[in-house]
Amino acid sequence: MEDCLRLDKITKTYQDINGETMAIADFSYSFKKGTFVSIVGPSGCGKSTLLSIISGLETQSSGTIFMDNSVLHNNKCNIGYMLQKDYLLGWRTVYQNILLGIEIRKMISPKTLAYADELLHKYDLYEFKDSYPSQLSGGMRQRVALIRTLTVNPDILLLDEAFSALDYQTRLTVADDVFKIIKAEGKTTIMVTHDIPESVSMSDEVIVLSNRPSKIKSVHKIHFNMENRTPLTCRDQPEFSKYFDCIWKELNSNG
Amino acid sequence: MDKCVISNERKEYLRKRKQNIFLIRFTQFAILFAFIIIWEVLAQTGIIDSFITSSPSRIVNTFINMLSEGLLMHIGITCLETLVGFLLGTVIGTLIATILWWSPFLSKVLSPYLVILNSLPKVALGPIIIVWVGAGMPAIITMALAISLVVTILEMLNGFMSTDENRIKMVRTFGANKFQVFTKVVFPSNIPNLINAFKVNIGLCMVGVITGEFLVSKGGLGYLIVYGGQVFKLDLVMTSVIILAIVASLMYHAILLLGNLISKKTNWR
Fold it and tell me: Within this chain, do residues A64 and A106 fall inside the same structural domain, yes or no?
């Protein structure tokens, strides 16, 4: 598979009055097209910083980002970013919320509007398009947030603890929904999480990070002996607990 | 159908509720009514000196006389000045708050000045305002502006600054520039704050206008009150104060309606 996104020796240091903190030390990795990669690590290790750098919200202190084998300047690539909560705007209808991304990027056209409609239809939200976010359940709101992100047709999708604000029950089903949508749209996805089962159940690869300043500790290729795996079904597979134990032990060993 | 059947408990609850509301309204009117009657009786029997305290009947007479002597014009002047002050205060205040939100540097530099201006009793600026803009309507509007502007700036800036960081991050992930961050998230999230500023401002502008009229004017309710005091016509003073109270509360309610209309139009919920 070809590389979609390659990070080369990325470092990030933060300056403040008390001195400087190194959040990321020497992070290099190639993300393959169409794969789902999770990044797990101790809290505060700079996982989210990594996503911020990839998305261009922050700039790295040193290192290079390659997109389709060419150097990315100002980190201006087409990226979709999902945050912990949906952050839907309460004064806009579901439909207006979904159009927010293309509105900001000035991409409103018959084609993008048709794509937005298609996504709404496909993921059972069309009948709610004129509702307000306050009228939807937590799981539906997160689905709306995902469609808002997909409407800009991103090359890469970043999920930043995207399910952690939901209760456990909803979380499992929404993760399942989101996974199916991502696979159906064939998006390359990078997910940051602190939930090991979530990372194993959704990913093709799991990257384990060390304590701050974070470096890659190990990478696990996740493979289940089944066809059409989904986050819910693969939880029953014998390999699941094996992967879980392995990653859990690594996270808890120092160094 | 089910919904037509109301349980006895519910009936009892609704009845009690209605009764309670009625009782509150009734007591409110009773207090007002009793106050007027007692005032009138005390004045008629000479227990209080109606030259100093006036009396309801004298107030009514004064009111009727005033109607033919341009009372409506005075009310109009006060309302006009208040509305102009309100509009200027709200618009300029929100604009300045926007500029300060835009430039954290400017906002940090100006913050001590704003704090000092905010704590300064603006009435003290009266003589300066009169000298600078002249004794007349502009001076009164400036006074209203002086009182309402700084509060609006601080209130709106505070609102802008405390906009949910994550919502800002959310639009920035779509590549929003600062202008878009403001128009798509920061300003719309602060509509409730804006409506609050409306409510505070209309009251403050009224204070500014009456203060201004005390100082310089030749017309308006504030002028009537101060003139009545100077020539010792307490009837005029009392009547004007009562009219002012009614005008002020009408204006406040008009602003409440405007606020509700804006919330509805912007679908703020």
Answer: no
A100 touches chain B (CB under 8 A): yes
Spans of all domains in chain B = 2-48, 61-265
* Verdict on whether the full-model pTM lies above 0.90: no
Q: Note the ipTM here.
A: 0.84
Pick from A96, A130, A154: which residue ends a domain? A154
Q: pLDDT tens digit string along A38-93?
A: 998 887 778 888 888 888 888 888 888 888 777 776 656 688 888 888 899 989 99
A170: domain CATH number is 3.40.50.300
Contact A89 B268 (CB under 8 A): no
Do the Cβ atoms of B174 and A132 come within 8 Å?
A: no
**Model confidence pLDDT, tens digit, residues B159-209:** 999 999 989 999 998 888 899 999 999 999 999 999 999 999 999 999 999
The closest CB to that of B174, out of A85, A104, A134, belongs to A104
Chain B residues touching residue A80 (CB < 8 angstroms): 173
Please write the tens of the pLDDT for every residue from A111-164: 989 989 988 888 788 888 888 988 888 888 888 988 898 888 888 889 988 888
CA dihedral A107, A109, A114, A119 (to 10 degrees): 10
Query: Per-residue pLDDT for B267 more than 90?
Result: no
Give the residue from B46, B71, B75, B41 showing the smallest Cα distance to B56. Answer: B41
Q: How many CB atoms lie within 10 A of CB B2?
A: 4
Q: CATH for B61-265? A: 1.10.3720.10
CA B79/CA B222 separation, integer angstroms = 11
In which domain, by residue range, is A222 found?
Answer: 1-77+158-255
Last residue of a domain, one of A134, A154, A174: A154
State the CB neighbour count (10 A cutoff) for residue B152. Answer: 26
Scan for tokens 């604009």, then name that residue: B95
